[in-house]
């Protein structure tokens, strides 16, 4: 390949390589459990994690803002156009009132930190 063709090739191909990246999307960013009895062991939901980019998406870590919430997530790479999941459980025992909890999802995207939330209104257990 001649030098001018090589330069032209680099100018045309290099920018597309530099902008190729994973892009994270959450179709639903807030899950509302509604009213939950404090007598319930737990309530759970799933947040879909969609890769809208053109490189594999990796969930590097998921953290919660409170001990009343636990999470786990897909550990395999999420291919472009595919989806993974973040699984959330909320434990209302001994709680009362309205709750808004944040779940921090770190990915290989820009920005790295993404936030989804759960909401619940914990009501006292009914004595019979």
Provide an overview of this structure.
- The chain is mainly beta and 128 residues long.
- The protein has one domain: Immunoglobulins (Immunoglobulin-like), CATH 2.60.40.10.
- It has 1 helix and 8 strands, in the order H-E-E-E-E-E-E-E-E.
- The protein has one helix at 3-19, and strands at 24-25, 30-37, 43-51, 59-64, 69-73, 83-90, 97-107, 113-123.
- The strands form 2 sheets. The chain has a 4-stranded antiparallel beta sheet with strand order 1-3-6-5, with no helix packed on it. A 4-stranded mixed beta sheet has the order 2-8-7-4, with no helix packed on it.
- A hairpin with a 5-residue loop joins strand 7 (97-107) and strand 8 (113-123).
- The radius of gyration is 21 Å and the shape is rod-shaped.
Task: Briefly say what this structure is.
This protein is mostly beta strands. The chain has one helix at 3-19; strands at residues 24-25, 30-37, 43-51, 59-64, 69-73, 83-90, 97-107, 113-123. It is built from 1 helix and 8 strands.
Describe this protein with a few key phrases:
8 strands, 128 residues, 4-stranded mixed beta sheet, single chain, 1 helix, mainly beta, 4-stranded antiparallel beta sheet, 47% strand, rod-shaped, Immunoglobulin-like, 13% helix
């Amino acid at each position: 390949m001649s030098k001018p063709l090589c330069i032209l090739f680099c100018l045309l191909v290099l920018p597309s390589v530099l902008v190729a990246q994973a892009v994270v999307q959450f179709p639903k960013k807030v899950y509302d459990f509604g009213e939950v009895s404090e007598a319930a062991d737990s309530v759970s939901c799933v947040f879909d994690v969609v890769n809208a980019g053109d490189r594999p998406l990796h969930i590097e870590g998921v953290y919660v803002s409170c001990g009343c919430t636990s999470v786990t997530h897909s550990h395999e790479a999420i291919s472009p156009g595919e989806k993974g999941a973040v699984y959330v459980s909320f434990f209302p025992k001994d709680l009362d009132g309205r709750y808004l909890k944040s779940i921090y999802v770190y990915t290989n995207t820009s920005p790295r930190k993404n936030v989804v939330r759960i909401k619940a209104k914990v009501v006292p257990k009914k004595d019979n």
